[in-house]
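To: structure desk
From: M.T.
Subject: fold request, one chain
Message: Could you run this one when you get a chance? Sequence is below, nothing fancy, just the single chain.
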Amino acid sequence: MLLKMKVDQKGSPNGIVVLSFEKGKTYDIDEGLAKVFLKEGWAELAKEEKAVEAAPDNKDAGAAPKNKNKNKDDEPGGER
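Reply: Done. Structure tokens follow.
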């Protein structure tokens, strides 16, 4: 079911994976979850337009680790 989000909201179409839905974007949402979004007033039925996929909640994995295998010869003042 195509819905246009009225607010930012999180939801789970399968009870396992939680997805983020952004205000103003249109999504093709599972009927059960779509009914909840409509009933709560978080979304409205959308006109036919291209839907986007919801982003998983864990999209930020944090900072990259420092390179622990760096050769000391590459550092300033390192032995040659």
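Reply (cont.): The beta strands are 2-5, 9-11, 19-21, 26-28, 43-45, 55-56. Let me know if you need anything else for the meeting.
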